[in-house]
C-alpha cells in the first residue's frame, strides 16, 4: 500500500521516542541538566526521523515511477540522483502546508517548551507525556508528507502531467476529502492535504 513504508517508519520512531522521552521523567530537576537532556532526546529522535524519511521517500519515488509506467531499473537510477539527503533537507526546510511549520525550527520550539515546563512543574510525567504526543504527531505527519512529495517527484520524472485524487470512502474521510475524490489536477497544482493524518493518495490520471 501507499503508506506502508511510512507506517513502518512511524512504528520504529514511536518505539524510539517512548524510550527517549521515558528517560526524561527520571532526570535530575536542575535547569542545565533538563536543557541538556531534552536537547539530546529531540536531537536523537530528529536524526533518526530524517534517516527514516529518506528511506521512505526513496521507496515511494521508485514505486511512483513504476506505477506511471517506468522500468524499475531506470526508476532506481533516477532515485539515486533525485531523492538524496539534500532533497529531503529542502523539503523539511519548507513550511509544510499541513503542519504550517518547518521541521527543524518546530523541533527546537518543542524542545524549549518541554525544558521550560519541566523546570517549572512538579507534574513531570504529565508534561513529558504531553510533549511526546505532540512530537509523535509531528514525526508521523512528516512521514506522510515526505511520501506524498516523493510520489509526486516520481510521477513528474515519469512524465505524468495530471494526477487523480483518491479518497477512501469510509467514516473517517472528512467532507473536504470526499469532495476531492476522483478529481483531476495538473501535477503542479495539487491542493495540499486538508488535515493531519490525511491518507488520500494520488495516482496518474
Give a written overview of the molecule.
There is one protein chain. The protein is mainly alpha-helical and 205 residues long. It is built from seven helices and three strands. It has a three-stranded antiparallel sheet, with helices on one face. It is elongated, with a radius of gyration of 19 Å.
Helix content: 55-70%
Strand content: 5-15%
Question: Over all CA atoms, what is the radius of gyration?
Answer: 19 Å
What structural class do the secondary elements suggest? mainly alpha
Shape: elongated
Topology, pairings included?
Layout: H1 4-24, H2 31-67, H3 72-82, H4 85-93, H5 103-120, H6 124-157, E1 162-166, H7 175-180, E2 184-186, E3 201-204
Antiparallel strand pairs: 1-2, 1-3
Helix pairs in contact: 1-2, 1-6, 2-3, 2-5, 2-6, 5-6
In brief, what are we looking at here?
The chain is mainly α and 205 residues long. It has helices at residues 4-24, 31-67, 72-82, 85-93, 103-120, 124-157, 175-180, and strands at residues 162-166, 184-186, 201-204.
Characteristic terms for this protein:
mainly alpha; 205 residues; 3-stranded antiparallel sheet; 7 helices
Amino acid at each position: 500500500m501507499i503508506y506502508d513504508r511510512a507506517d513502518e517508519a512511524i512504528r520504529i520512531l514511536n518505539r524510539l521516542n517512548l524510550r527517549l522521552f521515558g528517560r526524561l521523567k527520571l532526570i535530575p530537576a536542575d535547569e542545565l541538566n533538563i536543557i541538556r537532556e531534552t536537547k539530546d532526546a529531540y536531537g536523537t529522535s530528529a536524526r533518526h526521523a530524517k534517516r527514516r524519511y529518506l528511506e521512505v521517500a526513496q521507496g515511494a519515488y521508485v514505486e511512483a515511477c513504476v506505477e506511471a509506467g517506468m522500468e524499475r531499473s531506470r526508476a532506481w537510477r533516477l532515485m539515486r540522483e533525485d531523492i538524496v539527503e539534500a532533497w529531503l533537507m529542502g523539503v523539511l526546510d519548507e513550511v509544510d502546508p499541513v503542519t504550517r511549520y518547518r521541521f527543524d525550527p518546530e523541533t527546537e520550539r518543542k524542545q524549549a517548551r518541554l525544558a521550560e515546563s519541566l523546570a517549572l512543574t512538579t507534574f513531570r510525567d504529565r508534561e513529558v507525556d504531553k510533549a511526546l504526543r505532540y512530537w509523535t504527531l509531528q514525526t508521523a505527519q512528516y512521514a506522510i508528507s515526505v511520501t506524498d512529495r516523493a510520489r509526486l517527484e516520481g510521477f513528474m520524472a515519469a512524465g505524468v502531467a495530471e494526477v487523480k485524487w483518491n479518497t477512501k470512502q469510509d467514516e473517517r474521510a472528512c467532507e473536504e476529502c470526499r469532495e476531492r475524490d476522483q478529481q483531476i489536477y495538473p501535477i503542479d497544482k495539487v491542493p495540499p492535504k486538508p488535515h493531519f493524518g490525511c491518507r488520500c493518495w494520488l495516482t496518474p490520471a
